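Below is a typical protein record.
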Amino acid sequence: MARTTPEKTLGVFIHLDGDFVPAGLLTLYKQQAELLTSRFSYGLRYLDRPNAAPVDPVSLAIHGQDVPERGSEIFPVEGLTLFGGIRDAAPDGWGRRVIESRLHAPLNSLPESVYLMEAGSERAGALDIRPSIQSPAKVGHGANIQSLEYLLQAAERIEAGLPVPTNLEDFFDAGSSMGGMRPKATVHDANGDLWLAKFPATTDTLMDVPLIEATTMRLAGEAGLNVPTVRTEEIGHKTVMLIRRFDRFLQEGVMHRRHMVSALTLLGCHESESPHRSYGDIANRIRRYGITEWIVADQEELFGRMVFNIFVTNDDDHLRNHAFLWDGHDHGWRLSPLYDVMPRPMLARERNLHLGVGAQGRLATIDNALSAYARFGLTRVRADEIVDQVWRIVRQWRTYFEGYDVPDVEIEKIASAFQHIDDLR
C-alpha cells in the first residue's frame, strides 16, 4: 500500500468586520495524487476573538454544542476527505476549468491544494485559503459590467479549451458558486456592488438558459420567496444573467463578506449522499443551527421553495444549491436567498425532485409535500396557505414571462416544465 503523506499545510483566513484575519491551519493528506483526508487547527488568538465565526459549523464548531478542545487538531466528520466549510470555499467545476486554463494544466490534474489557493480571495463566502498564515491575499483585478462582451468571449475560449488573453484571466471568479459547470464571473457596477454574471454555455442549444433562469427567479420573488436582485444584459444575440452577490455588501465604502456554507456542509455529508437526503433534513438543521427568532421564517421559506420547485420542475435542487449565511451578531445561520433555479421541460407526468419531498420520497407532488408539513414546524393550515401563495403566482407564469419580455418561442420551449396544481394531487 502506498504511503500516506502530508501534501501541504495551508493558511485559512476569514473576513470579519471588513478585513481578513487568520483563522487556523489546514493540512491535506494524500496517497499518490488522491486526497485522503485533512485536518484543521484553530489559532488560539482567533478563538479568543468575540466575533469569531466557525469555519465549518459541524466539524469545527466554536459555539454551543460539539466544541472541540482548544488547540486540538480536528478531522472532518463522517470520514469526509475535506471539511465542508473548506469544500464550499473551493472552486466549483467551472472555477477549476478557469484555474487549469490559467496554469495551462489538463483537466482535473492539479493537487487539491492548488485549486484551493488559486481560487483567490473573491471566492464564495468569507473564507480565503493561502500558502501560509503569513501570506497576503491574492487579489484579482476585477471587471466592470462594461466588460461583459470580453468576458463572454473569454468564457467561450475556456469552454473550448483555448488559452485566454492574460488581461482577462483574473476577471473570472474561480469560486463564485457552490457548484456547477456554467461559465460565470464576478463584475462590479458603477456603485461598487458586486454581481455574479452567468453566461450562456456552448451547450445551450435548446433554449436561452440565462433568460429563463433569470425570469424564473423573478417569478419566485413574485411568489413571496427570498431572491437576490436579478437582471439580464443582451450581448450581441446572447443573454447574460446578472445576480447581485448576497455574500457581499458595501458599508461606508468598505466591502464586507458574509460567511456562507451549503446545506451539504450543514448536514455533514458527502455529495453522493445528496439524493438520499430531504428538505425535511435541511429543516432539522435549521432548528439546530439557526437563529431562534428566525427559525420559523426560514422553515416556511424552505417549504415554499420546495413547493415552487415542484410547480416548475426544478430538479437541480441538490444540497449545494441551498446555502446558509452566518450572522455574527446572533451567532447562528440563516437560510440564504434562493439561487440556481432552472425549470426542466419534460413530457413525463410523474416527476421527481433531487431531494426527498415527503412520505413518497422524491415524488414531485403537492400531496407529497403536504405529507411532510410537520417536519417544517408548520400546521396543516399554514402549509396550505404557503402552497396557495405560491400557486396563485405560478399559475400566471406565462403572463409574468411575457411581462419580462421572454419571446414566445422561448416560452413554448419551457412550457412543459410548469405543472397545474390539479395534476399534482
Q: What stands out?
A: Residues 155 and 298 are 36 Å apart (CA to CA).
